[in-house]
Amino acid sequence: MKKKGLLKKGSSVALVATLIGSQLLATVPVNVLAAENSAEKNSVDALPYYSTTVSTWAELKGALSNALVTDIYLDADITIGETTDVAATMKNIHGNGYTLNADFKQLKLTTDNAVGLMEDLKIINTTIYGLFWGDAANLQVTYKNVDHNGRQMIYLPKGELIIEGTVTSNSTAEEVFQGKQLTIKDNANVSFVSSATARTISPISFLYDNGGLYVGKNANLKVRSTAATIYGGTNSTIISYGNIDLKSEKFQAIHLASKGAMYFQPGSVLKAVAGDKTEESVQANDGSIFVEAGATFEVEGNGAQGAVIMGNTFKLAQGSNFSITNFNPNGSALGTYTTPANVIMKSGQGVSTWDRGTVTNPTPTATYPGLLNAQFTLSGYLNSVKQTDLTSNNGLFNSAYNTGKTGKIVGGSFASKAISQTTINKLDTDATLATGIAEPKADVVLKAGTTVIGQGKAGDDGKYSITIPKQAAGTSVTATATWNAQVSNATTVVQKGTADQDVARNAVDALFTDTSKTDIKSITDQTAIDAAQALVNKVQDPTAKADLQKDLDKAQSLLNAKNEQAKQDTANKAVKELFTNNNPASNAIKDTTNQKAIDDAQKTIDALAPGSVKTELQADLDKAQSLLDARNKQAADDQAQKAVANYAVNQLFVNNTPASDAIKASTDQDAIDNAQAEIDKIKDPALKVDLQKDLDRAQELLDQRNATASQLEKAKQDAARKAVNELFNNNTPTSNAIKSTTTQATIDAAQKLIDAVTDPIIKKALQEDLNKAQSLLDAKNEAAAAEKARQDAARKVVDELFNNNTPASNAVKSTTNQAAIDAAQALVDKVTDSTKKAELQKDLDKAKALIASKGTLKIDDFVLGTTSITGSYSGDVDRITLSKDGVESGNATKTNGTFKFYVGPGIKKDQSLYMVAYDKNGREIAREKVNFAVVTAGQITPKAMTIPGDSNISGTYTGDVSRIEVTITNEAGISTVYKGGTVANGTFKFYSFDKTKSPKDIIVVRAYDSVGKLLDTKTVTITNNIVTTSGNVTPAAMTIPGDASLTGTVSGDAATLKVTVNGTVYAGGSIASDGTFKFYTLDKIKKVDDNVTIAVYDKVGKLLDSKKVTIQAPTK
């Protein structure tokens, strides 16, 4: 614990009080006024405001450590990674509803007069120091809308905690607040719960002198604990304009040490409950307690000492409301400690007192009604406490009041409660119990006239029940309730008794299910109705008897209907069970339905009363009878049909008997089908079984006979089909192609097999396929002759290209040219035999190779807006020209396998461009199309930034921007390149809070397309560090050919160089410390007429100056 020693009680005390007859003029201590003024002030001198949003512990720690950041906004739940000292003079954490898990780590404010804020936050797992604690001087920490759960909410031994909004704390180990000053602002709602069990580990604890608690208007402070709820040191002060609700299970509610004071201002409410069996509930030690007009002061204690103890002044002002109770029978309501006390007690509604041990009685021991002004000096804190110098405007109070005997005293609204209005329920001549409502715990007396006929007490709920003798009709019975010297009466007149009616009514009502009397109970039978009728017959009052008889008749009617329904249900069941699926709508009766079942059902119908139900059931029963009659008739018909079918089946077999297991020669399919028709006419499936078995055997025997006769024909058909199919590719006529082995002989052989087939349908199909094969063979023979002629013609022309008309010479004739080769190629292309064609093509390719030069072209994609087509070549290329829209012109410049063709600035995307290569003989050997390059473009526009302050580099983009790259150069000139960020939907964003620290940093953003092409470069404007740069370049004249580098001087902020040659930009070169520069250009500037400029840029890429370079030819 972090405690200072607290004052303990001695064995003897003296308390002095001075009573005055007018309002007490008390001077509020200076430290109290200071606390009250500080509660109205929740601001500090204006400080720079820099905010950031964090979502991780690393980000939060960085923001806490950054002296420039004042406000931190949480964007996620965060767990503190390590105990951290916060040296800033202002640090505000805005939780946005997220959770800050202290994980038993600390955030400590270390600078005197620092200001901190925890807002809109859930805090868990704190140590016994909490978050934003500190022992530096004059710390001021505000908790606003905070939900805390941990070992302790906060420790501020030299500082102030300000509470706004709704703040709750469940502290599991020690205090909730432990510090110097606790200020609860207007309209705040505060709930503290502490699990600590030691007396002095109070939820609210003032560690040092001059500490205190301030509760603003309409604010609510609720504290629950085992320990004392509030514990304060010397000169501690409590000022309340709001509502304070305190409860300690085992110890005091409020304990303030020496010189402590409490000020309960108009409109404030204190409810303090202490469970301590020895000590007081509320104590100001040798200090004072002031309860002003309009304030409510309610204290409950359980100790042997006074429930409220003070040592200087105890003022209960006129208009205040007070109730002070000590439930310990040995403890008084008031007491003093160390010095006598002045007690000033005023109440416009009088004062009531209870002696010790009677405080739970509803009626006080003494009541002093009306305006009471009293004052006296009080000494002692045990039940021996006594008052002296007592004066008041109430003589009875002067003579009767004894502080030492008083366990409870109330005044103001607590003494003005009016007694509840007494009621008495109706009584009749049969009544022996009077009931009603009175003031809870009031004494109740019942009288008939002036004679007491019963008495008792109202319960805690105000209800009473008192036994009385039966009274005559017309007797007036009065109930009188007495409580706290107040009386309330109620009277009723005894009515004639209705016992006979009540018995009958109970019997009749018991027949029904509820008061609606729309249905009788399941147990209600004729016996019950007859018994009720006997009771109704005894009722004397004719009107009541008529009402009872009416209800009884209704019960009889319901019973009759119930009995009739049971008969209907029985009949309905009997009829339905005659039918399939128990449903007459099925129009079919069950196999088990017989005449007896129908007769039994008829008896249940006969028992029904006439009506629609009986008529409908009789109709269904008649249907069942009809179906039964029809079934019986069908059985007789089936027997007759069985004899006919049996004759038809027997006639199929040898000797007219299935036992022969052989069918007659005359038995054919028609005979079997006719017999089947006769069997099908039988309705009963059981009668069909044996007949169908014999007929199925006859069918099997007929099938066997037919199968033997067709086997030979089937063999002929199969042989013919096999022969025909094998004429075709894949052995299928649908291929529409015959095999290479198919000849006229194989076709003739197949024809002989077809001729042997007798089935006309099969034979026709086979003949059609054979005719197809004959047609294909005829066509094949004709095509072979034509192909032979094409091969011979091609061979002759190819051979004639070579010396001695033979390719084996490996030399072509001098007359062989491209036209001759093309003519030969045309004849070779007509050959269809792939093998022959390949042989011819091989020889023709040899001729081509002997006369043709070879070459290739590879063309670079042309970028619209440029003036040259470039590429590479190989082979026997001698000259490269451009074919533009079909017209050839010009020659390209060739260098070591590359070429460049100047086309000027006028090329359009819809033009047709080809580069054409020729060999030294002027023969075209390559032609390639010029493709146009896909050009990407895009721009970025970064937003201006404030550093520190902004956490992200952001902006917008257009065009083909796919990713960004950020370069940050610090004041030392060190540059760091970062990749990442998000680029989407026209905006980009790059988190930079941990990367840029100073407003003098230089931030450059570069935009690239999807393949890495640089599209745009921009420098971010830092609003609090706008830097202006300038510079110049002076190039020296160049001699071409001759000079290998461009040189000159630069000035100002020039940092980088770019040289442009005929529209092509080159970056590079170097700048020396003396301002001279050098740029290698031997491979870039080649002619005197090249157009060359040089430009200089500052270190963020800003163009500073550009000059044209003078180029001269060498002197001769």
From TrEMBL:
Protein name: Bacterial Ig domain-containing protein
Signal sequence range: 1-34
Keyword check for Zinc-finger: no
Keywords attached to this entry: Coiled coil, Signal
Species in which this protein is naturally found: Listeria booriae
Pfam families linked: Big_15, Big_6, Endotoxin_C2, Pectate_lyase_5
Recorded coiled-coil stretches: 545-572, 688-722, 763-796
Domain Bacterial Ig span(s) in chain numbering: 422-494, 855-931, 938-1024, 1031-1112
Residue span(s) of domain Pesticidal crystal protein Cry1Aa: 500-561, 567-630, 642-704, 716-779, 791-850
